[in-house]
Amino acid sequence: MTIFLPSEGRTRKISTIEQAQFWLQRAWPVSDHNRDVALEKIDAAMDCLAPVGAARAAFLSAVGSAGFHADFPAAA
Question: Which Pfam families does this chain map to (predicted)?
Fold first, then answer.
């Protein structure tokens, strides 16, 4: 998925769960509940303790609460 950062006028491509985790931990501009939940769900999914879909949904909630927009590539 591609994340559009309106405040910076640029995009960021996130294509792996590791990239999402790294970005949330190191470069996320908003430290809020949605970010914390996304990190918890991603960590659980990486340890095979939660579905990847739950981690993705939590990440998308964090994207929205940070004021970003997500764009998904078209299916082939």
Answer: DUF982
Task: Please give the structure tokens belonging to residue 18.
Answer: 């590791």
Residues in the chain: 76
CA-wise closest residue to 28 among 52, 58, 54, 49: 58
Residue 12: per-residue pLDDT: 85
**pLDDT tens digits, 46-73:** 999 999 999 999 999 999 999 888 887 6
Q: Which residue in the block uniquely carries the two structure tokens 């910076």?
A: 8
- Cα separation, 48 vs 20, in Å, equals 16
Instruction: Tell me the backbone φ, ψ of residue 72, rounded to 5 degrees.
Output: -105, 140
Can you give the pTM of this predicted structure?
0.86
